[in-house]
Amino acid sequence: MAAARYYDGVTAQVTEVGVRATASELVIYRAANFGAADPGPTDSAIVARWPVAELAVLGDAVHEGAPPVVRRGGEARLVVEDAALRRQLASLVPPLAALAAAPAPAAQRVATLGATLAALVGLFWLAVDYGTEYAAPWLPYSLQASLGETVFDELVADKDECHGKRGLAAINGLANELARAAGYPHEVTVHIIEGGPVNAFTLPGGILVFYSELIEQAKDRAQVAGVLAHEIGHVVHHHPIKGIARQYGIELLAKLVSGGYSDLLNTLTSGGNILLALRNGRAFEREADATGVALLEKLGLRADGIAGFFEQMLEKEPGDAASAAGIWSSHPPTRERIAATQRPATGRPAFSDADWKALREVCK
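^ that's the sequence the OP posted. Answer follows.
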Protein backbone atom coordinates (compact mmCIF):
# COMPACT_ATOMS: atom_id res chain seq x y z
CA MET A 1 0.00 0.00 0.00
CA ALA A 2 1.25 3.47 -0.90
CA ALA A 3 2.25 5.82 1.90
CA ALA A 4 0.31 8.68 0.30
CA ARG A 5 -1.81 9.73 -2.68
CA TYR A 6 -1.17 12.81 -4.80
CA TYR A 7 -3.85 14.68 -6.79
CA ASP A 8 -2.44 17.28 -9.16
CA GLY A 9 -5.59 19.45 -9.13
CA VAL A 10 -5.73 19.55 -12.92
CA THR A 11 -6.66 16.03 -13.97
CA ALA A 12 -8.53 13.18 -12.31
CA GLN A 13 -5.34 11.14 -12.10
CA VAL A 14 -4.24 9.80 -8.72
CA THR A 15 -0.54 9.11 -8.14
CA GLU A 16 0.73 6.83 -5.40
CA VAL A 17 3.67 8.60 -3.83
CA GLY A 18 6.18 8.67 -1.07
CA VAL A 19 6.95 11.77 1.02
CA ARG A 20 10.17 13.08 2.56
CA ALA A 21 10.58 16.26 4.61
CA THR A 22 13.66 18.48 4.75
CA ALA A 23 14.23 21.67 6.68
CA SER A 24 12.97 23.77 3.80
CA GLU A 25 10.64 21.65 1.68
CA LEU A 26 8.36 18.67 1.38
CA VAL A 27 9.44 16.34 -1.42
CA ILE A 28 6.72 14.26 -3.08
CA TYR A 29 7.99 11.45 -5.32
CA ARG A 30 6.97 8.37 -7.19
CA ALA A 31 8.54 5.28 -5.66
CA ALA A 32 8.92 1.91 -7.29
CA ASN A 33 8.45 0.10 -4.01
CA PHE A 34 6.68 1.29 -0.89
CA GLY A 35 7.91 -1.57 1.26
CA ALA A 36 10.74 -1.54 3.76
CA ALA A 37 13.25 -1.01 0.98
CA ASP A 38 11.81 2.31 -0.26
CA PRO A 39 14.69 3.77 -2.30
CA GLY A 40 13.62 7.38 -1.63
CA PRO A 41 13.34 10.19 -4.12
CA THR A 42 15.36 10.40 -7.30
CA ASP A 43 15.39 13.38 -9.63
CA SER A 44 13.38 11.55 -12.27
CA ALA A 45 10.75 10.38 -9.76
CA ILE A 46 10.04 13.73 -8.05
CA VAL A 47 6.43 14.82 -8.55
CA ALA A 48 6.49 18.09 -6.60
CA ARG A 49 8.55 20.13 -4.18
CA TRP A 50 6.50 22.19 -1.74
CA PRO A 51 8.20 24.87 0.41
CA VAL A 52 7.57 24.28 4.11
CA ALA A 53 6.44 27.89 4.59
CA GLU A 54 3.62 27.37 2.07
CA LEU A 55 2.19 24.17 3.56
CA ALA A 56 -1.23 23.87 5.20
CA VAL A 57 -3.54 21.09 6.44
CA LEU A 58 -7.23 21.18 5.49
CA GLY A 59 -8.90 20.07 8.70
CA ASP A 60 -7.33 17.80 11.29
CA ALA A 61 -7.01 14.12 12.10
CA VAL A 62 -9.57 14.40 14.92
CA HIS A 63 -12.42 14.75 12.45
CA GLU A 64 -10.87 13.13 9.34
CA GLY A 65 -8.88 9.94 8.99
CA ALA A 66 -6.35 11.53 6.62
CA PRO A 67 -6.82 15.29 6.21
CA PRO A 68 -5.35 16.60 2.93
CA VAL A 69 -2.13 18.60 2.85
CA VAL A 70 -1.99 21.49 0.36
CA ARG A 71 0.38 24.11 -0.92
CA ARG A 72 -1.24 27.52 -0.41
CA GLY A 73 -2.41 29.01 -3.67
CA GLY A 74 -2.40 25.65 -5.48
CA GLU A 75 -5.07 23.12 -6.35
CA ALA A 76 -2.99 19.99 -5.72
CA ARG A 77 -3.74 17.73 -2.73
CA LEU A 78 -1.61 15.27 -0.80
CA VAL A 79 -3.37 12.64 1.31
CA VAL A 80 -1.02 10.81 3.68
CA GLU A 81 -2.52 7.39 4.36
CA ASP A 82 0.21 6.03 6.61
CA ALA A 83 -0.44 7.04 10.23
CA ALA A 84 3.21 6.68 11.22
CA LEU A 85 4.26 8.92 8.36
CA ARG A 86 1.66 11.51 9.38
CA ARG A 87 3.07 11.59 12.90
CA GLN A 88 6.63 11.83 11.54
CA LEU A 89 5.75 14.73 9.24
CA ALA A 90 3.90 16.49 12.06
CA SER A 91 6.97 16.31 14.29
CA LEU A 92 9.38 17.53 11.58
CA VAL A 93 7.25 20.19 9.86
CA PRO A 94 5.44 22.64 12.20
CA PRO A 95 2.75 23.63 9.62
CA LEU A 96 1.73 19.94 9.50
CA ALA A 97 1.23 19.55 13.27
CA ALA A 98 -2.50 18.96 12.77
CA LEU A 99 -1.68 15.60 11.14
CA ALA A 100 -0.74 14.19 14.55
CA ALA A 101 -4.05 14.91 16.29
CA ALA A 102 -5.58 11.80 17.84
CA PRO A 103 -9.00 10.96 16.39
CA ALA A 104 -11.92 10.96 18.79
CA PRO A 105 -13.42 7.53 19.59
CA ALA A 106 -16.08 6.49 17.12
CA ALA A 107 -18.76 6.28 19.81
CA GLN A 108 -17.96 9.83 20.94
CA ARG A 109 -18.14 11.14 17.37
CA VAL A 110 -21.48 9.42 16.79
CA ALA A 111 -22.85 10.75 20.07
CA THR A 112 -21.69 14.29 19.28
CA LEU A 113 -23.18 14.12 15.81
CA GLY A 114 -26.45 12.76 17.19
CA ALA A 115 -26.69 15.44 19.86
CA THR A 116 -25.91 18.18 17.35
CA LEU A 117 -28.49 16.85 14.90
CA ALA A 118 -31.12 16.58 17.64
CA ALA A 119 -30.42 20.16 18.74
CA LEU A 120 -30.70 21.45 15.17
CA VAL A 121 -33.95 19.56 14.62
CA GLY A 122 -35.33 20.92 17.88
CA LEU A 123 -34.38 24.49 17.03
CA PHE A 124 -35.87 24.18 13.55
CA TRP A 125 -39.05 22.68 14.98
CA LEU A 126 -39.40 25.55 17.45
CA ALA A 127 -38.72 28.06 14.69
CA VAL A 128 -41.45 26.51 12.56
CA ASP A 129 -43.92 26.18 15.41
CA TYR A 130 -43.52 29.64 16.93
CA GLY A 131 -41.92 31.59 14.08
CA THR A 132 -44.97 31.21 11.86
CA GLU A 133 -47.08 32.79 14.59
CA TYR A 134 -45.42 36.09 13.75
CA ALA A 135 -44.06 35.62 10.22
CA ALA A 136 -47.04 34.10 8.37
CA PRO A 137 -49.38 37.12 8.72
CA TRP A 138 -46.72 39.28 7.04
CA LEU A 139 -47.09 37.40 3.77
CA PRO A 140 -48.55 39.77 1.16
CA TYR A 141 -52.34 39.72 1.18
CA SER A 142 -52.40 39.27 -2.60
CA LEU A 143 -50.43 36.04 -2.20
CA GLN A 144 -52.74 34.78 0.54
CA ALA A 145 -55.83 35.62 -1.52
CA SER A 146 -54.42 33.94 -4.62
CA LEU A 147 -53.64 30.81 -2.60
CA GLY A 148 -57.13 30.80 -1.06
CA GLU A 149 -58.80 31.17 -4.45
CA THR A 150 -56.75 28.33 -5.91
CA VAL A 151 -57.67 26.00 -3.05
CA PHE A 152 -61.33 27.06 -3.26
CA ASP A 153 -61.48 26.33 -7.00
CA GLU A 154 -60.05 22.86 -6.42
CA LEU A 155 -62.38 22.08 -3.52
CA VAL A 156 -65.61 23.10 -5.24
CA ALA A 157 -64.77 22.05 -8.80
CA ASP A 158 -67.42 19.31 -8.77
CA LYS A 159 -69.91 21.01 -6.43
CA ASP A 160 -72.79 23.44 -6.97
CA GLU A 161 -72.46 26.92 -5.52
CA CYS A 162 -75.54 28.81 -4.33
CA HIS A 163 -76.25 32.20 -5.89
CA GLY A 164 -79.25 33.69 -4.07
CA LYS A 165 -78.28 37.38 -4.15
CA ARG A 166 -80.09 38.59 -1.04
CA GLY A 167 -79.01 35.61 1.07
CA LEU A 168 -75.38 36.02 0.00
CA ALA A 169 -75.56 39.76 0.61
CA ALA A 170 -76.92 39.13 4.14
CA ILE A 171 -74.20 36.70 5.21
CA ASN A 172 -71.40 38.64 3.50
CA GLY A 173 -72.61 41.87 5.08
CA LEU A 174 -72.49 40.36 8.57
CA ALA A 175 -69.13 38.72 7.89
CA ASN A 176 -67.53 42.03 6.91
CA GLU A 177 -69.17 43.87 9.80
CA LEU A 178 -67.61 41.35 12.19
CA ALA A 179 -64.22 41.56 10.42
CA ARG A 180 -64.20 45.37 10.62
CA ALA A 181 -65.05 45.17 14.32
CA ALA A 182 -61.88 43.09 14.75
CA GLY A 183 -59.78 45.57 12.77
CA TYR A 184 -59.28 43.26 9.80
CA PRO A 185 -58.35 45.54 6.87
CA HIS A 186 -59.44 43.37 3.93
CA GLU A 187 -62.78 42.30 2.52
CA VAL A 188 -64.13 38.89 3.50
CA THR A 189 -65.99 36.72 0.99
CA VAL A 190 -68.46 34.00 1.99
CA HIS A 191 -69.34 31.25 -0.50
CA ILE A 192 -72.22 28.84 0.10
CA ILE A 193 -71.95 25.34 -1.36
CA GLU A 194 -75.12 23.33 -1.89
CA GLY A 195 -75.45 20.22 0.26
CA GLY A 196 -73.47 18.87 3.17
CA PRO A 197 -71.76 18.21 5.43
CA VAL A 198 -72.91 20.42 8.31
CA ASN A 199 -69.70 22.39 8.23
CA ALA A 200 -67.93 25.64 7.41
CA PHE A 201 -64.25 26.44 6.98
CA THR A 202 -61.86 29.28 6.23
CA LEU A 203 -59.20 29.59 3.52
CA PRO A 204 -56.30 32.06 3.24
CA GLY A 205 -57.19 35.54 2.04
CA GLY A 206 -60.45 35.86 3.99
CA ILE A 207 -62.39 33.27 1.97
CA LEU A 208 -65.13 31.47 3.93
CA VAL A 209 -67.02 28.41 2.76
CA PHE A 210 -70.39 27.42 4.24
CA TYR A 211 -72.37 24.32 3.29
CA SER A 212 -76.08 24.93 2.86
CA GLU A 213 -76.82 21.91 5.07
CA LEU A 214 -75.46 23.87 8.05
CA ILE A 215 -77.83 26.77 7.37
CA GLU A 216 -80.80 24.47 6.82
CA GLN A 217 -80.24 22.46 10.00
CA ALA A 218 -79.52 25.45 12.24
CA LYS A 219 -82.24 25.91 14.84
CA ASP A 220 -82.14 29.69 14.56
CA ARG A 221 -80.28 32.61 13.00
CA ALA A 222 -78.10 33.01 16.11
CA GLN A 223 -76.45 29.66 15.43
CA VAL A 224 -75.50 30.63 11.87
CA ALA A 225 -74.22 33.99 13.13
CA GLY A 226 -72.23 32.18 15.82
CA VAL A 227 -70.57 29.85 13.33
CA LEU A 228 -69.86 32.82 11.04
CA ALA A 229 -68.30 34.77 13.91
CA HIS A 230 -66.16 31.73 14.76
CA GLU A 231 -64.89 31.58 11.17
CA ILE A 232 -64.14 35.30 11.23
CA GLY A 233 -62.03 34.52 14.31
CA HIS A 234 -59.93 32.26 12.10
CA VAL A 235 -59.65 35.03 9.50
CA VAL A 236 -58.53 37.82 11.82
CA HIS A 237 -55.94 35.59 13.52
CA HIS A 238 -54.57 34.41 10.13
CA HIS A 239 -55.05 30.78 11.13
CA PRO A 240 -55.26 29.34 7.58
CA ILE A 241 -51.94 30.77 6.39
CA LYS A 242 -50.25 29.96 9.72
CA GLY A 243 -51.39 26.34 9.41
CA ILE A 244 -50.05 26.06 5.87
CA ALA A 245 -46.73 27.65 6.83
CA ARG A 246 -46.27 25.25 9.72
CA GLN A 247 -47.16 22.21 7.66
CA TYR A 248 -44.69 23.08 4.93
CA GLY A 249 -42.06 23.98 7.53
CA ILE A 250 -42.21 20.53 9.11
CA GLU A 251 -42.16 18.85 5.69
CA LEU A 252 -39.06 20.90 4.83
CA LEU A 253 -37.47 19.77 8.09
CA ALA A 254 -38.08 16.14 7.13
CA LYS A 255 -36.44 16.66 3.76
CA LEU A 256 -33.47 18.53 5.21
CA VAL A 257 -32.80 15.88 7.82
CA SER A 258 -33.31 12.88 5.54
CA GLY A 259 -32.00 14.37 2.32
CA GLY A 260 -35.40 13.53 0.86
CA TYR A 261 -34.57 9.82 0.71
CA SER A 262 -35.26 8.31 4.12
CA ASP A 263 -38.76 6.82 4.16
CA LEU A 264 -38.45 5.96 7.85
CA LEU A 265 -37.45 9.47 8.90
CA ASN A 266 -40.07 11.02 6.67
CA THR A 267 -42.66 8.75 8.30
CA LEU A 268 -41.55 9.74 11.79
CA THR A 269 -41.52 13.46 11.03
CA SER A 270 -44.87 13.14 9.28
CA GLY A 271 -46.26 11.69 12.50
CA GLY A 272 -44.81 14.64 14.40
CA ASN A 273 -46.23 16.95 11.77
CA ILE A 274 -49.70 15.46 12.30
CA LEU A 275 -49.50 15.88 16.08
CA LEU A 276 -48.25 19.45 15.70
CA ALA A 277 -51.01 20.28 13.22
CA LEU A 278 -53.65 18.77 15.54
CA ARG A 279 -52.32 20.65 18.56
CA ASN A 280 -52.32 23.88 16.58
CA GLY A 281 -55.80 23.02 15.33
CA ARG A 282 -57.13 22.82 18.88
CA ALA A 283 -55.41 26.09 19.83
CA PHE A 284 -56.81 27.79 16.73
CA GLU A 285 -60.33 26.54 17.46
CA ARG A 286 -60.26 27.83 21.03
CA GLU A 287 -58.97 31.20 19.86
CA ALA A 288 -61.62 31.42 17.12
CA ASP A 289 -64.38 30.51 19.60
CA ALA A 290 -63.33 33.24 22.03
CA THR A 291 -62.89 35.83 19.28
CA GLY A 292 -66.24 35.01 17.70
CA VAL A 293 -68.15 35.48 20.96
CA ALA A 294 -66.27 38.72 21.71
CA LEU A 295 -67.04 40.18 18.27
CA LEU A 296 -70.76 39.40 18.54
CA GLU A 297 -70.89 41.02 21.99
CA LYS A 298 -68.93 44.02 20.73
CA LEU A 299 -71.57 44.63 18.04
CA GLY A 300 -74.45 44.08 20.48
CA LEU A 301 -75.60 40.91 18.70
CA ARG A 302 -76.85 37.69 20.28
CA ALA A 303 -73.74 35.70 21.23
CA ASP A 304 -75.35 32.47 22.44
CA GLY A 305 -75.41 30.89 18.98
CA ILE A 306 -71.93 29.35 19.14
CA ALA A 307 -72.73 27.37 22.28
CA GLY A 308 -76.17 26.54 20.83
CA PHE A 309 -74.58 25.11 17.70
CA PHE A 310 -72.22 22.95 19.77
CA GLU A 311 -75.13 21.75 21.92
CA GLN A 312 -76.97 20.70 18.79
CA MET A 313 -73.86 18.81 17.60
CA LEU A 314 -73.65 17.06 20.96
CA GLU A 315 -77.31 16.03 20.75
CA LYS A 316 -76.63 14.34 17.41
CA GLU A 317 -73.42 12.72 18.65
CA PRO A 318 -73.65 12.27 22.44
CA GLY A 319 -70.36 10.36 22.53
CA ASP A 320 -68.40 13.55 21.69
CA ALA A 321 -65.91 12.22 19.15
CA ALA A 322 -63.48 15.07 19.84
CA SER A 323 -63.22 14.12 23.51
CA ALA A 324 -62.88 10.42 22.74
CA ALA A 325 -60.09 11.03 20.23
CA GLY A 326 -57.96 12.83 22.82
CA ILE A 327 -54.71 14.21 21.39
CA TRP A 328 -55.70 12.88 17.98
CA SER A 329 -58.63 15.30 17.74
CA SER A 330 -58.18 18.49 15.75
CA HIS A 331 -60.89 20.17 17.86
CA PRO A 332 -61.28 20.66 21.63
CA PRO A 333 -63.91 18.54 23.40
CA THR A 334 -67.39 19.81 22.55
CA ARG A 335 -68.48 20.15 26.19
CA GLU A 336 -65.42 22.28 26.87
CA ARG A 337 -66.35 24.55 23.96
CA ILE A 338 -69.95 24.86 25.16
CA ALA A 339 -68.79 25.88 28.64
CA ALA A 340 -66.34 28.45 27.18
CA THR A 341 -68.88 30.08 24.85
CA GLN A 342 -72.07 29.95 26.93
CA ARG A 343 -73.79 33.35 26.83
CA PRO A 344 -77.31 34.64 27.64
CA ALA A 345 -79.80 34.95 24.79
CA THR A 346 -79.64 38.74 24.80
CA GLY A 347 -78.73 41.26 22.12
CA ARG A 348 -80.27 42.10 18.76
CA PRO A 349 -80.65 39.47 16.01
CA ALA A 350 -77.76 39.20 13.57
CA PHE A 351 -80.16 38.91 10.59
CA SER A 352 -83.49 40.60 9.94
CA ASP A 353 -86.49 38.37 9.29
CA ALA A 354 -86.25 39.05 5.56
CA ASP A 355 -82.49 38.42 5.44
CA TRP A 356 -82.83 35.22 7.44
CA LYS A 357 -85.54 33.95 5.08
CA ALA A 358 -83.37 34.84 2.06
CA LEU A 359 -80.38 33.08 3.59
CA ARG A 360 -82.43 29.94 4.23
CA GLU A 361 -83.46 29.97 0.57
CA VAL A 362 -80.07 30.98 -0.86
CA CYS A 363 -79.76 27.80 -2.92
CA LYS A 364 -83.28 27.91 -4.43
